[in-house]
Amino acid sequence: MNMYEIDFNRPGKELFAIVTDRLRLAVLKKSCAPEVTDYFVRNKNFHQQWSQTHNDNYYQLKTQKRYMRYDEAEYKAGRVVPLWISLKDNPDKVIGRVSFFNIAYGGMMSCAVGYHLDKDYTGNGYMKEALLAACSLLVKELKMHRIEAFILPENERSLNLIRKAGFTEEGLRKSYMHINGKWRDHVSFYILEDSLR
Question: Are 185 and 173 in contact (CB under 8 A)?
């Protein structure tokens, strides 16, 4: 199943990218921090109820530059894969992110995935397209065997998406992440490599 093509056509802005039918998913360089900051500012209220707790400094350019420097170093070390989403025909506007973290090699070959999308681009199937292509990338290129996702129980849209993408529900993670000012339980899901080949 070929869900993406690898693309290195924007070396000044990206370390790595894949393209799908409609999207571009890229590991961005810190020079793209203004576009990322704009994305977070545009979606601050929309994301707040589902995202980890942040103070107002998070929405400043200097803070996002630090995060992007960290992402670049961690990506090069093989510890995270931070893929920023844009439309294929408008690669300079960030509309979301799919990121892989807690990457374990050796006897585990597993990781976790998180994602979010611009409020103005929901309901078009973009996140399912991005999620499936990104998970396929992790299986093919990093040889991941298992990918996990953790979702708030009341986040119906995300629960529907993860099920449509082929993930299986596994149980409840108690007090898993600090979201919007509180420690919150999350529903745990997983998908195995055979479902993504």
Answer: yes
